[in-house]
Amino acid sequence: LQKAPAMPSNTATACVVKMNSDGSVCVNVGLTDIGQGSSAALAQIVAERLGFSYDKVFVKIEKDTDSDPYDWQTVASKGLIMSGNACILACEDLLRKAYLVSSHVLKACVDDLAHDGEGVYVKHDSENRIAWPRIAIGYAYPDGQAIGGPLIGVGSYIAQGLSNLDKETGQGKPALDWTFGAHGIICEVNPKTGEYLIRKIASAFDVGKVINPQLLRGQIVGGMLQGLGTAMCEGYIFDMDGHLLNPSFTDNKIPTSKDIPFEIETIAVENSQIDGPYGARGVAEHPMISVAPALGNALSQAVGVDLVHMPIRSEDVWRAMGDKTPIDNWITKSPIGSCRSDLVHTREVASKHGID
Fold first, then answer.
1. pTM of the model
2. Do 40 and 212 form a contact (C-beta atoms < 8 A)?
């Protein structure tokens, strides 16, 4: 599979990095962490650019459009690449201001300065340094004079090189980055009942550069499980009069962590994204996309029948094996536009397939 974030050509985001009086930093972005782990990944990016330890970086979780920097939306798997770049730009803005103050205090040219997690120092004389807390809110000389002020860095990032699609040719560049991936599934089928069990799923994605291996695995496993829900059990069922029979999560099942007795292998391929933060690219929605066709292909190889409608329930496999004909020949789409219906139009046809 390949997927890119669809977005307007002027999609933008911003970040504010503020140094605290104790030498730690607060990061404020418009991107919302709804469980995907973006706050942890952005904290790592900021820590890397500033040379800080991870525990000195705090990303603001709560969001308020009145006070937080702008972000187009928390969608489209673009959070890491866009907000990550904005964070790096904000860090560089903060460092420029810190170097300017430090050059006066250390009596050195800005070009001769470097920094680490403890402060700013002169490259050829690392003992000649000033600690972050001493310049975080402005430096005061022994005689009381002061320079600088609160160290705040601001970074804005807009998607680069995008264009609208040409109305005549359909050509253009609507996407910021493309993530490629694939799924492989091993399953077993009971030829008498159609019941099938998944034994292993392998998910491989080219993520550019892995920022956080644990978060990446969680993102891939979560997306894979959501994809299995689409492929195996999630769908609307209507009676002959068009009444919805499974309107709640009691009857319309979704998979949970308890439904993973099988082996999962996650594979990260790293081909750096040139314009991504430290080479990273998005991998949020991608893991759910190709699960259904992978499952369909695995079952087709097992039973010799194409199963192309979702969800693929055990009864679907059983009926398809009995007919040895493609599933489209015996099942219909719902006439009222649902994702899937187990109903057929006539009771005669329904009876033929064992439906009361």
1. 0.84
2. yes
